[in-house]
Each structure stands twice: as C-alpha cells, then as structure tokens.
Design brief:
Radius of gyration: 17 Å
Strand content: under 5%
Oligomer: single chain
Distance between the termini: 53 Å
Order of helices and strands: HHHHHH
Number of helices: 6
Number of domains: 2
Number of strands: 0
C-alpha cells in the first residue's frame, strides 16, 4: 500500500507515474490508482519516449524479428508495459490492413 505521505512529495516534484513507480518499486498502475484515491494529479508522460520506442518496435515487428517473443520480454526490451506492446501490435496490424485495402 502506498501512502499519501510518500506519494505527495514525488508528485509535487513533477515526476511521472513511471518515475515514481521506479522509486517506490511498484507498477505505474499502482501509482495511478493511489494518486487517484488521494486526489493527487500526476504529470503527464511525454509521448516522445513512446514515439521513439514505438517506431523501433514497429520496424522490428514488420520485419518479423519479434515472432514468438513473449509480451513481457518485449515490454522489457522496449521499456514499456506489456499492455503497451499489445496496443502497438493492434495499431500496426490496423495500419497494415488499411494500407492493403487502399491498394
């Protein structure tokens, strides 16, 4: 359980949920849940980190280099949650499907 006393100073420093989770040895989701419970507003994560990681992942995924690799391992490799990997895969598959329908 995270307390308001340990979360509030980190939130006030402007740390993201990922940064706070790293400091408190928990998940980002846990940080977000407790911040919501305590009425603390987190700093939004910059999408540039995800954008860069997404395009690295996208290129490897399209090239077929990630076949058979577990979601958790992919998340660790690209420094994102496994749910983000699932989202990225769905997004890429939609892009590819839409591109093939245009031809």
């Amino acid at each position: 359980m995270l307390t308001k006393e340990e979360l509030q100073p980190l939130v006030e420093q402007g740390l993201t949920s990922t940064q706070i989770a790293d400091k408190l040895f928990c998940t980002c989701q846990t940080v977000r849940i407790y911040c919501k419970r305590y009425g603390l507003t987190l700093t939004k994560q910059k999408s540039s980190r995800h954008s860069e990681q997404y395009y690295l992942f996208r290129n490897a995924y399209i090239a077929g280099k990630l076949h058979g690799v577990h979601l958790k391992d992919l998340g660790a490799r690209y420094n994102v949650a496994s749910g983000t990997i699932t989202h990225w895969k769905a997004k890429i598959n939609r892009e590819l499907r839409d591109a093939s329908n245009e031809d």
